[in-house]
Fold this protein.
Amino acid sequence: MPEFSRSHEEVNALLGYLQEISDLAALGALADWDQNTALPEEAGDVRGAQLATLRGVLHERWTAPELGRLIARLEKVVEHEPFTDADRALVREARREHEKATRLPRSLVEEMARVEAASFEAWRRAREQNDFASFAPWLSRTVALQREVADRYGYRETRYDALLDLFEPDLTVRKLDALFAPVREVSLSLLKRIQESGRNIDASCLYGHFPVAQQDALCKRLLEALGYNFKRGGLAHSPHPFTTSFGSPVDVRLTIHPQENFIASAVMATIHEGGHALYEQGCAFTLLRTPLAGGASMGVHESQSRLWENYIGSSEPFWQGHFHLLRAAFPEHFATIDAATFSRALNKVEPSLIRIEADEVTYNLHIIIRYELERELINGELAVESLPRLWNARYREYLGIEPDSDTNGVLQDVHWTSGFGYFPSYTLGNLYAAQIYYTLRQTFADFDERLAGGDTSFILDWLRQHMYIYGMIYLPEDLIQRVTGEMPDARYFARYLNEKFGRLYELTN
Amino acid sequence: MPEFSRSHEEVNALLGYLQEISDLAALGALADWDQNTALPEEAGDVRGAQLATLRGVLHERWTAPELGRLIARLEKVVEHEPFTDADRALVREARREHEKATRLPRSLVEEMARVEAASFEAWRRAREQNDFASFAPWLSRTVALQREVADRYGYRETRYDALLDLFEPDLTVRKLDALFAPVREVSLSLLKRIQESGRNIDASCLYGHFPVAQQDALCKRLLEALGYNFKRGGLAHSPHPFTTSFGSPVDVRLTIHPQENFIASAVMATIHEGGHALYEQGCAFTLLRTPLAGGASMGVHESQSRLWENYIGSSEPFWQGHFHLLRAAFPEHFATIDAATFSRALNKVEPSLIRIEADEVTYNLHIIIRYELERELINGELAVESLPRLWNARYREYLGIEPDSDTNGVLQDVHWTSGFGYFPSYTLGNLYAAQIYYTLRQTFADFDERLAGGDTSFILDWLRQHMYIYGMIYLPEDLIQRVTGEMPDARYFARYLNEKFGRLYELTN
């Protein structure tokens, strides 16, 4: 169990300081949660003002010279015994946030909040009306602000590195390009082989009439089966599924967005968000109310949502073990369908325009397209006005299909109304997940048998003990190495994709 | 429409300062709302820590010398033209909160938060186990803290005045005693006459099987019929119904606690909380994000919940106009029941042990008992240990019944785990409500006919225009005088009670 040296006066002072910040940040997270699940239609502006005020207070606290002095004093001693990994991580994260905050003037932080709110509204209207031109000025403003932010944060090689680092500490374009090249290669070649095989998967069993209340009950049972603790969390609806926590493992909530005619949406979102939630709930209680509670990074977080969703939750053995839940919830619909048919349907490969609906083979191509485009925007190699044209060209090049409208293309999601640099986390998560998956399979020789028996607790226990408990104590690469024994390596992902979809589509070679 | 002199530099500075405070307070209200509607079971301690931190930040802001200087400068000029009533109220409320905060040291505020949390737990257990002795030490601690708070705030005549003033500015024991004497008298004599009449009301039509989902839908329709705006609010469940807003009229939410076998609980809570909510939603938009948004005081707030619940919502004309909603929700149950029978049932008089279930005739006796007891506790005339004995004695004296256990007596609700001085607001609210009710009846000669026709919008429009729009600009007595043309006067309540229940119970004289 990670422990802080609470008897050390300055560690204790830092903890006290950061706990207050953590409490205030948790109230911000609560405001976000509420905005997505319950906020009345006409209260958006007032909530925006509340969040801006809170952001100001947090900026004030993070930039306090008193905090800077405390960090500096601790940095001199904390590397050595008897200080713990938790102490060192606390000082490291405090330094990181203190630096980030002091490098951005409060006026810039406030300007970003204003532009983000206005940009969100502009995007919403533009998407409705398929009118990229009306969104372009706001996107340009966001790009300009993100460039300024990157310059203020600083970077060694390329400006985009500064933004990557916000979501994945120490990640760079150089590292990403090395990881992404084999991903692009395996995705493209596998897609080609699947398409050339002429084989098709029938996914019709996912469609029908599934009343929302029964979907909710089913998703609750699925979460309980995975080991999610409802005494430390809850399930709600929101337009886009997400998971949030409030600075502690004792309050980790998730949302779904059930579709009445399509069961896969809520079920797979439940397992995906459930993965995030299991990770958060597994964090050591000793890290509660500190910046170290939660996941190591966004990439590592996505590794857990994708591990549970794809590597475990879309597999046939998993559904052998859990199909009775589907049958109990919708007895008529699933009377003549079996686990194998259902899990095959979940894994149907088909290039599509919308990232969040993509299969595992094409998913990372969506990410790579966006990564390339936003890196080019930030580094000044691409004008906002050319974005739709280039977007469509790359979809044709990578996926062989082209959006019929910007609404289904460059305007499809909200990401570019705020920060840049997040997308790569998704693919990084897939890579980490593959590596962890093979570690698990190697650790548990009877992995598939246990899954087919309805057991996933052996996975959760192992991950808790080797990974979840540490929260943000270890940096992503370090953590992956501790969990898998190796540095992040894209080969596991290539192997996984080829094995799984080779088998599903009966590809030779 | 109330307006601030925003072009005046110091008014503007004060507004900016108070808007930030209002935003932070709104996040606290959100945390409370969430705690009552969604917080996971095991997250209570962490939420407590978050709220304590926020309380500290708010204390810091309210006590800032910079704020004190701003208030002092404005106080010199604000009484005169061209400053507005809104400006004056802003300075008045800022002074009030600044004084209150500076008179309590932060250590006392924190100690109160700790004792409150522990006392709540002790009360919960004591109530479960009917064990007042285990709660007594915590109640003693709370009494001691409340006495200290009162002494620090200061008072002119009696210590309890200092606590009354927190919920009802300028209210004193002297004023209360003058208002409460006729209330006690009319309640006791009316109860006696009803009991001696031997007449009884059959309330069996309120009992049956009412599935919660249908109750929710019914309550939504009722709220819409009353003029509550769901684009600026929402309805949820909580163990105890309440209404909250977040520093603005654009986000005003309420809760109910439906009972599956008893329809009156959710329906009347909906109208009661709806009254609070209509008041909050009616506040002028110009007061948004300031301490002036919301109701004038707790007493004035209760006047609106009680006005809508009792004076309007339990009347026969109202149900003539709205019975179709009950029938639509529960067609079988209400097939052979009519509006007259239903509204009579709602008004059945029967002395009971539990305040929140009390009828209008006995309700204020519950309040008066508690007012007397807590005044005696605060003024040092009563030892905590004697409380259960005295409680039971006064219930026998006033209501003619006696609790069989402390669980149904002195431990019945949570109020005495935190502050003292709130209870009188309930009765004060009933008095204000009666006075406003007769003003409305005088203004609208066809009051009952309009109600019976299903219209309540004329009431809401009038109240908005004459009362709601002003938020907290006017002090309670001033506001009541503006709305009704007279100072608060208990005679209206006595008249209302005698008229209504005289008719219902066919009392002669």
Chain A touches chain B through 40 residues (CB under 8 Å). Chain A has two domains: 9-168, 174-504.
